[in-house]
Amino acid sequence: MDVAGMQLSDDEVAAAGMTQAPAAQVPALVQRHGRWWCERCGQTNLVRLPDGRWYCPHCVVLGRLTSTSQLYRFANAAATAGPLTWHGQLTPAQAQAAREVTAAALARRDHLVWAVTGAGKTELLFLAVAAVLARGERVAWASPRVDVVLELAPRLQAAFATTPVAVRYGGAPWPSVAAPLVVTTTHQLLRYYHAFGLIIVDEIDAFPYAAESGLAYAVQQAKLGAMIALTATPSATLRRAVSRQTIGVSRLTRRFHGHPLPVPQLQLVRAAQLPNRLAPRLLRQIARALVGAGRLLLFVPAVAWLSVVARQLQQLGHVATVHATDPARQAKVQALRRGAVDILVTTTILERGVTIPHCAVMVLGANSPLFSAAALIQMAGRAGRASTSPDDPVWFVTPHVTRNVLAARREIRALNRAVAP
Amino acid sequence: MKCLLCRQPLTQNWVLSQLVCGAPVRLPPICANCAAQFDPIDPATACPGCGRADSPTLCADCQRWQASGEPLLHHRAQFQYTPAMKALIYQFKGLGDYRLAGAFADLPRPGRAGDVLVPLPSEPGHWRERGFDPVLALFGHWGLTPLLAKADTAAPQASKTRAQRLATPQSFRVVRPLPRRRIILLDDVYTTGRTLYHAADALRAAGFAGEVVSFSLIR
User: Fold this and answer.
1) B7 and chain A: CB distance < 8 Å anywhere?
2) ipTM, 2 decimals?
3) Structurally, how many domains does chain A consist of?
């Protein structure tokens, strides 16, 4: 079992039976200026238990830390990694961004890769990862969701064929070998301390990273060098940091295949039609999209809409629904890719990180306050991913136009106008 | 305000009468989406013996309790033990996230006004580990009468099979003077009923002659 660079609670250490391994020991919760503070996630607002102890509710899902707990910080180990075994071709724009990212990573400067959906972010980071590994430092690649971690790990293993790759997520078995390259959910970074010469944070504006300040703290605690943030839709804070030049940025405004992003078309409908009585016109349109693109991702704002909408689409083809707690989520996405499912009705859970070639996108109830402009851009970005069908249609179906809908369209148009650097 | 469970912002559509009638205006502890994950048990179709959902007549388990000579507890439970509830109970009791008790702060007090509510206590070992008593955390605001104490047992009920659970020996004793009114025993989860029947036996063995019924959050 490998614990290099990790910080574990006394419960975890006891359960794993490694009380002998050398580690720095610190109290898990400390008082600062009269307020309790969690050493693992950096949060205050802790909760007092009836027996007088305090505990941290913010990172309790990793195992509870109380005011009598200890954190064991294990020494980091030198990493011996193999070379980059990926020999693919980067577009000139990707190659330029790759050089900038590698320079930032080696200089331990934080850097943002602001790239449109489908620009090929993953490949352009390989050079930076290889450069940091070659220095003998470890690299963590953090994604918001387990699905993405599981999809990414084999790609990284293929690109670094002779380097051990560890996969970390809640419920994953403990790493058995010292791995220089760690593919992890962002939450698991809370279990590392001063371990990585480079941390890549994918989808930096997505839930949960944006919603939980503990995760930003986790990245700061886990890294020794640079953080490279990836997103297609940076938050307002990040955009400000870019314009003030407090963080370096590489922009990619074209997809890898060089075609523009599909621009969403607005489709105004009566409010009463959503979601219970979809108009025949809308159903005919969906049928046409299926003939044209082959398959359709249909986004809805609430779990309750899934079955209602799916029932009305039954006669158009094979329909499946998917939501965050659906255990068969991966299988249904696979079925859509294979063509066993024609229409996948989904909540925002599939808004990011899924690549399905030949896929039209429709957002029902695009006016929902749950759909931010960033979410709408991401959903629209599921269409046109293949170079053989870069213009799959995208519709925003809504009873009225909202600022978010307009902002999303404006931004997509602006990206299409921008000339690739 | 954020939902205690999913941490999303809470929204509530207020009706004017709610705002002007003078009653305290406050948000529910959990959002409608999270609340909808839990399946409430309809008391009209629940088993009259144990409160199991969709069993209008006495279920097989309760017939066995009756055959063994136990006066039935006429147990009532609020929710079914669905996967969503199981996950919540794991975080609350397993991980020790004390705060989650607040998710059910709006439950109505069971029984009639004069009833004495008696919580089933934690084992001392569990209390030391968790730092709180789950039953008191859930129901403490109702005004409880802690009559019982529990000795440490070899293994927690949650780790046993059904047959092992039913064979668990008595570990309750009465530590306070008994009331004369009806007693409602309170627990977090009713599984086989073994724990609650032991508690009722302990009360009767100590000389309580009145009626004993029971209530739990989950069945």
Assistant:
1) yes
2) 0.87
3) 3
